[in-house]
UniProtKB/TrEMBL annotation:
Protein family membership: Belongs to the PEP-utilizing enzyme family.
PROSITE patterns cross-referenced by the UniProt entry: PEP_ENZYMES_2 (PS00742)
Name of the protein in its database record: Phosphoenolpyruvate-protein phosphotransferase
GO cellular component, as recorded: cytoplasm
Primary role: General (non sugar-specific) component of the phosphoenolpyruvate-dependent sugar phosphotransferase system (sugar PTS). This major carbohydrate active-transport system catalyzes the phosphorylation of incoming sugar substrates concomitantly with their translocation across the cell membrane. Enzyme I transfers the phosphoryl group from phosphoenolpyruvate (PEP) to the phosphoryl carrier protein (HPr).
Species this protein is from: Pseudodesulfovibrio cashew
This protein's encoding gene: ptsP
Subcellular location: Cytoplasm
Length: 594
């Protein structure tokens, strides 16, 4: 048996086998806590100040090497530099050295803990996020003080990075150092670390408990980004198994990527568009590389997070125009802000809602904050003059909401017209179908818009009543629940009856088990994470619609998820024997990380 097997949340697929190399350890556990005599106080103060200065100098140097396409990270590095320059933290630590005679490391740790306690009392998710940044910066200074900082430059050959957390500055270094994969203690699927891993296209896990206690520098590790496991010092047999699995995965990826630019057309000639979901403009390279036929969901809220101010129209327009122009003539669907629930911005603070997922989020939040909404609408309209742009509103619950949102859009258009600013007057406008209410009145909503996009991540959450972030009930989060399938079918049928297109952009679109059923329903396009595009296109190209419709008919007659699962598995074994090994490893992803 291997020394240890740890589990985490897989955020980028693939298998890496190599030596572990630790960066950004959590030094707090082993912090020297000593008091110093009066004559040594000034030494400790200098040690503290030097550490602050040298981390600041290093970050400034890294900042200079940030490639143009990662300019968002430059902003984050700037925030960290500002935190280092802020005299409050260094000043408080210095005071502890002088007044209590604490050594520099202990004094700094105490100053950070004070700030954490003060911020905790405020109970604002944004502030909590800022506090995490202070923590990251302080840990770098601590590492300097105790002389335990790890330099990526010291890495011999390629390695698998293990870290407590990775900062934006590390991101840039990681790009330069060509690492094989990484695992962190902190982070979630949508944290910037996860997004970064996907854009680097290396296997990665986040949220790995006890990583620092169980993996040591130089350990041989298998990082399995398919099943979310880290195998520490595997046995010869385990190693051979993983080598075989890695080779299989590489061969599979190579094979499917060879054909990823071919159209997603079934054997009997039906075309489905396969588009990409992105959070950052920087991801377009990966969209194009993986054969994405456009961007079906640009989650615009990311640009509003991780910052203290709101982006202005110019900043947004520049970003949106870049995206529309690079993707042109392929289409880009901008989703207007989906803030609220778990995504808050500082300027609006905590709303103190008991049930934020059902609170003032997405379109509701925008309609309550029309200035913020209109700034974004104007920026999207300006981008529409530079490419094939569509816009969609999230979390629509009724006809009135659509009309209100469209009224703001009309006002933004009128302003731009008066100002002589160009935009596409025929830019298609759609809505996301994410609420059961929207499903039930889909036939009315269809007359208000040009297209639907089904957001199954939320639709499943609201229709089965299962919080998508709550691991206690994750076993109930079932794309193949008979209710989910019927719900999706109602929406597809309503759209087609009204003569509009319907896309699906939740995680279901990248689920190989669900795709044949969606094809059977006649879905027009699928939008999914870029790395999953080649695999899904391959399935579509090996399918014929006759089989998909037959499968759909059979599953719609089933009363239980279990029976539907069996039918879907049979279908996979029958039609995609080559993919079975790969798919069964995907199935292991369903295990909640321990
Ligand atoms: C969805 O709800 O399915 C969706 C795509 O939106 P998000 O995951 O951003 O809520
Ligand atoms: Mg959603």
């Amino acid at each position: 048996m291997a020394d240890k097997i740890l589990t985490g949340i897989p955020v980028a697929t693939g298998i890496a086998i190599g030596k572990a190399f630790f960066v950004n350890r959590n030094h707090r556990a082993r912090l020297p806590r000593q008091t110093v005599t009066l004559d040594l106080v000034s030494n400790e103060v200098h040690l503290l100040q030097d550490a602050f200065h040298s981390v600041e100098a290093e970050l400034s140097a890294t900042r200079e090497h940030v490639p143009a396409e990662l300019k968002d990270y430059r902003l984050l590095i700037d925030t960290h530099i500002l935190m280092l320059k802020d005299p409050k933290l260094a000043g408080a630590a210095e005071e502890y050295i002088k007044s209590l005679g604490l050594n520099a490391a202990w004094a700094l740790e105490k100053a950070v803990s004070d700030q954490e306690a003060a911020f905790r009392a405020i109970n604002d998710p944004y502030i909590r996020e800022r506090m995490q940044d202070v923590r990251v910066v302080a840990d770098k200074v601590l590492a300097k003080i105790i002389g335990e900082e790890t330099d990526l430059g010291a890495m011999e050959g390629r390695a698998i990075i293990m870290a407590h957390d990775l900062t934006p500055a590390d991101t840039v270094e990681l790009q330069v150092n060509k690492i094989m994969g990484f695992a962190t203690v902190c982070g979630g699927k949508t944290s910037h670390t996860g997004i970064m891993a996907r854009s680097l296209a290396i296997p990665a896990l986040v949220g790995v408990n006890k990583l620092e206690d169980n993996v040591h520098d130089g350990d041989l590790v298998v990082l399995d980004g398919l099943s979310g496991k880290i195998v520490v010092n595997p046995t010869e047999t385990e190693l051979a198994e993983y080598n075989e699995r890695a080779a299989y995965f590489e061969e599979y990826t190579r094979k499917i990527k060879r054909h990823c630019h071919l159209p997603a057309e079934t054997i009997d000639g039906s075309r489905v568009q396969v588009l990409a979901n992105i959070e950052l403009v920087e991801e377009v390279a990966s969209v194009l590389d993986n054969g994405g036929e456009g961007v079906g969901l640009y989650r615009t809220e990311y640009a509003y997070l991780n910052r203290t101010d709101l982006p202005g129209e110019e900043e947004l327009a520049e970003k949106y125009i870049d995206l529309a122009s690079i993707m042109s003539p392929k289409k880009v669907v901008f989703r207007t802000l989906d803030l609220g629930a778990d995504k808050f911005i500082s300027s609006y603070g905590e709303l103190g809602e008991t049930n934020p997922a059902m609170g003032l989020r997405a379109i509701r939040f925008c309609l309550k904050n029309p200035q913020l909404f209109k700034t974004q609408l104007r920026a999207i309209l300006r981008a529409s003059a530079h490419g094939k742009v569509s816009l969609m509103f999230p979390m629509i619950s009724g006809v009135k909401e659509v009309r209100q949102a469209k009224a703001w859009l009309a006002q933004a258009k009128a302003e731009l017209r008066r100002e002589g600013v160009e935009y596409d007057p025929d830019m298609p406008v759609g809505i996301m179908i994410e609420l059961p209410a929207a499903v039930m009145i889909a036939e009315y909503l269809a007359y208000e818009v040009d297209f639907f996009s089904i957001g199954t991540n939320d639709l499943i959450q609201y229709s089965i009543g299962v919080d998508r972030t709550n691991h206690h009930v994750s076993y109930l989060y079932q794309p193949l629940h008979p209710a989910t399938l019927r719900t999706i079918k109602l929406v597809v049928d309503a759209a087609h009856q009204a003569g509009i297109e319907v896309s699906l952009c939740g995680e279901v679109a990248s689920d190989p088990f669900c795709v044949p059923i969606l094809l059977g329903m006649g879905i027009d396009s699928l939008s999914l994470t870029p790395q999953a595009i080649p695999g899904i296109k391959r399935i579509i190209r090996q399918t014929n619609m006759h089989d998909c419709r037959k499968l759909l008919k059979e599953v719609l007659e089933c009363r239980t998820v279990g029976r539907i699962n069996d039918l879907v598995m049979d279908n996979i074994f029958k039609h995609f024997p080559d993919e079975v090994t790969f798919f069964s490893s995907l199935l292991e992803n369903d295990e909640a990380p321990s």
